[in-house]
């Protein structure tokens, strides 16, 4: 069976052995550093570190290929939209203009604009591997326990855990319903025209919605019968105790965040300007 999208992938790696709290805190610090800085040097370092951590995690690229392709398409559209609505943003930020070629009116291609959008792209490449790794290397129950240990109400934490568990269930139901409908002669392949394929997809969506509602009702009844929410606190079976590796990882993550912020803001400008 194919690996489910955005679901826990069990591997024997240093990343998997870390506590869910550690991975959540590291992800928050990593995202903060990436979002606040426009220093290309910092972003390149974070990108290289993301790739290294991804390799250490032993998660294969094919395991997240579909989601990655979807994100890259969104990134491409985002870059196009940035240029359409603000083609001179790089010029305004860096204060110089090195025109490569003109298109029409205020639309021209400058090195500054390309450099600015390169930094935007780097931000995605820094955060995306970290986000995907956090999702696929953290068991939903452990993630819920981590949220609760950080002060989040256990009802909210458990809801997040159920949502993450539900993603692969929806994918399995979708495939089963699609195969059943195809066995009844409903063609969803590229042999049909796009409009016809969209209409045929409706034959999958409705059964999927009803099966999802039925599962939600079953889970809700089961939780209610077991007295979920009666107590103010609860224990967690899947929680992991902190080990030396967790403390070391948190220290390294904090050091990277502090150094990144210092390099970014020490001169009062978070944009690295190679043109001045």
TrEMBL record:
The domain of life for this entry's organism is Bacteria
The answer to whether UniProt assigns keyword Transmembrane helix to this entry is: yes
Q: Which keywords describe this protein according to UniProt?
A: Membrane, Transmembrane, Transmembrane helix
Q: What's the protein called, per UniProt?
A: Cobalt ABC transporter permease
The UniProt entry, under Pfam families, shows: CbiQ
The root-end lineage is:
Bacteria, Bacillati, Bacillota, Bacilli, Bacillales
Q: Which PANTHER family match?
A: ABC TRANSPORTER PERMEASE, PROTEIN ABCI12, CHLOROPLASTIC
Q: Which GO terms describe its cellular component?
A: plasma membrane
Q: Which InterPro entries match?
A: ABC/ECF_trnsptr_transmembrane (IPR003339)
Where does the chain cross the membrane?
A: 42-59, 66-85, 114-136, 247-265
* Entry's localization field: Membrane
The answer to whether keyword Membrane applies is yes
Q: Can you name the source organism?
A: Lentibacillus populi
Lipid bilayer topology: Multi-pass membrane protein
